[in-house]
């Protein structure tokens, strides 16, 4: 390949990438209504039930929040399990 062919190939690839991004951008954006709804806090009673799989089944969000409040995660104590070691080969 010559230098001109390589530059042409890179330019065509960039143009195709930007073109594909421009065409797909409207499908990836949220509407103004959905964006406003995502920024507004919702009551947990309004959320649909969560399916936790075959072991637990369908559980309401209120029960999940209550369980989290009754059983908070344990705070991390001590040093981290793995220390980063920097060095050569």
Query: In percent, how helical is the residue content?
Result: 40-55%
Give the terminus-to-terminus CA distance: 37 Å
- Read across the widest sheet, the strand sequence of neighbours is 1-2
H/E topology pattern: HHEEH
Which spans have pLDDT < 50 for at least 5 consecutive residues? none
Secondary structure blueprint with pairings:
Elements: H1 3-28, H2 32-39, E1 50-51, E2 58-59, H3 61-70
Antiparallel strand pairs: 1-2
Can you summarize this structure?
The protein has 89 residues and is mainly alpha-helical. 49% of the residues lie in helices and 4% in strands.
Descriptive report:
This protein is mainly alpha-helical and 89 residues long. The protein has a domain at 41-71. It is built from three helices and two strands. Strand 1 and strand 2 (58-59) form a beta hairpin. The protein starts with a helix and ends in a 19-residue tail after the last helix.
Pick out its properties.
single chain; 89 residues; 2 strands
């Amino acid at each position: 390949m010559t230098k001109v062919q390589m530059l042409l190939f890179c330019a065509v690839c960039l143009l195709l990438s930007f073109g594909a991004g421009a065409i797909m951008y409207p499908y990836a954006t949220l509407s103004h209504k959905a964006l406003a709804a995502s920024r507004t806090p919702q009551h947990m009673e309004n959320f649909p039930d969560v399916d936790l799989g075959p072991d637990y089944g369908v559980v309401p969000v209120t029960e999940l929040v209550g369980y989290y409040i009754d059983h908070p995660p344990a705070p991390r104590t001590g040093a981290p399990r793995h220390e980063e070691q920097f060095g050569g080969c």
